[in-house]
Amino acid sequence: xxxxxxxxxxxxxxxxxxxxxxxxxxxxxxxxxxxxxxxxxxxxxxxxxxxxxxxxxxxxxxxxxxxxxxxxxxxxxxxxxxxxxxxxxxxxxxxxxxxxxxxxxxxxxxxxxxxxxxxxxxxxxxxxxxxxxxxxxxxxxxxxxxxxxxxxxxxxxxxxxxxxxxx
Length: 167
Fold this sequence. Notes:
Blueprint: E1 27-36, E2 39-48, E3 57-62, E4 75-80, H1 101-104, H2 112-116, H3 138-149, H4 152-166
Antiparallel strand pairs: 1-2, 3-4
Helix pairs in contact: 3-4
């Protein structure tokens, strides 16, 4: 859980501002629970927060459009941040492949944004005891539990209860 708060409403709607921080990336689940007229109402919404400043712009410029087999060439790679500022000492990998290979097999590498910044599952659950009723039947439950589990402590407790009932 990243954060929680209790808000009181004086009308049917209220604007609540949530400042986004790095902890909210790549996404977070906003959950709202409200109790009204002895009922629990819940809603959860997935909010995506893609950190654009973490991605680089890569520009590849060839000195020629087409090359002959075994011909050399010059490739210039420019790396910049989101604001266009050059990034120094960036570690890159360059692969040169005959383009016809992609006619046989398509590219299998997933887009880097999709790989590292995918939606996460929401494992937070909210439950309520609003609908729970207790009718005072703990003794039979204890006996049934002791008999089904078979532990000595519970069995002794169940035997004690049976003796008290027979007195």
